[in-house]
Amino acid sequence: MRAWLFQDSRQKRKLGEDDCPWSVGWMEKGRRRSKKVGSRSMAEKYRRKKEGELANNLVDPLCNRAKWTEAKELFLAHAKTHCRYKTVIDYTAIVTKFEKLIKPKRAEDLSRTAIDRYVELRKSERRKLEKPPLSVSTLNKELRVLRAMVNLAAEEELLTKAPTVKLLKEPEREVVFITDDQFTELYKAAESMKRPADRHYKPADWWRALLVFLYTTGWRIGQTLDVRRENLDLEAGTVFARAETTKGNRDARIQLTPMAIDHLLAIKDFYPLVFAWTNHPDTLSKDFVALKKAANVEIPGRFHNLRRGFATNNASILPADVLQHVMQHRDAATTRRYINQAERMRQTEISGLIHCPKLPAQA
């Protein structure tokens, strides 16, 4: 029952049960509310009215008691159970940022209004720091995390109903990727690399094997660095990735190209990981930036551009469902972006072949 009838005990002792007025009580926003009405029949009528108001406003007294910390701890505990370590770190950072900007106290503060305000504060925060504005894709990444949080809170009845979290509309931009010519320059510039220096082969061999592997498989850098020796069969020419090392949380086995096999044979050693990087993790990205500079390749981003290069180059060769499987995309729309990019490139190439009428000579 959302609302109830009662008589105040003090008034009841003072006036007697027959003359004591009746009151209506209810829970709202985690607090007990009441109103003195009068006769029992009038109080009953007011109780029904109040229950209707509470139902229409979707105010659930049990949900309103839930604290923000309960929703936060529930979500992060769920993430630790079902997500990879890096994903948990990202989720924690986003939830902490929301907590810092919005300062929620109850679970119900995780509302659509609060989320919209969070987006505005994130934008203004960058302006105050005189930093470049956040990209729409970054904001949408944070909104997806908050959407997952409100859905879980509603599922566990910390919220009466999960608010609708709408993503921002992202402009459709051309996919930035490494071309064959740029790849060739990176391959040649690998001779200048100094790390890893603790192997029996040259650092250039390690970098060239990594570049070829990424460019001919389309794998993400994270799952590539997690490939173990026992999951690599150079005789059969296959490599296997365990589900827990992939973003899509699915096993992946692919056939390697002869070029990739030759380069992997050149870096055989006794490390359990095929591409073991024994230096600080941050140095890998810094070294790739140095490699681009040495190759005079001016392109934003890091290793993911090799994955985009694989997708764009093979979008016109492989069927859409096969490309989606190889790229390990959960959503076919993501694969479709690369197919659209390849189609636009073909349109550019045939622009010189399109028939144009002859124009009369100008006097």
Automatic annotation (TrEMBL):
Keywords: DNA integration, DNA recombination, DNA-binding. This is Site-specific tyrosine recombinase XerD. GO terms for molecular function: DNA binding. It comes from Aeoliella mucimassa. PROSITE patterns: CB, TYR_RECOMBINASE. The keyword DNA-binding applies. It comes from the Bacteria. Coiled coil: none annotated. Residues 66-154 form the Core-binding (CB) domain. GO terms for biological process: DNA integration; DNA recombination. The keyword DNA-binding applies. Residues 173-351 form the Tyr recombinase domain.
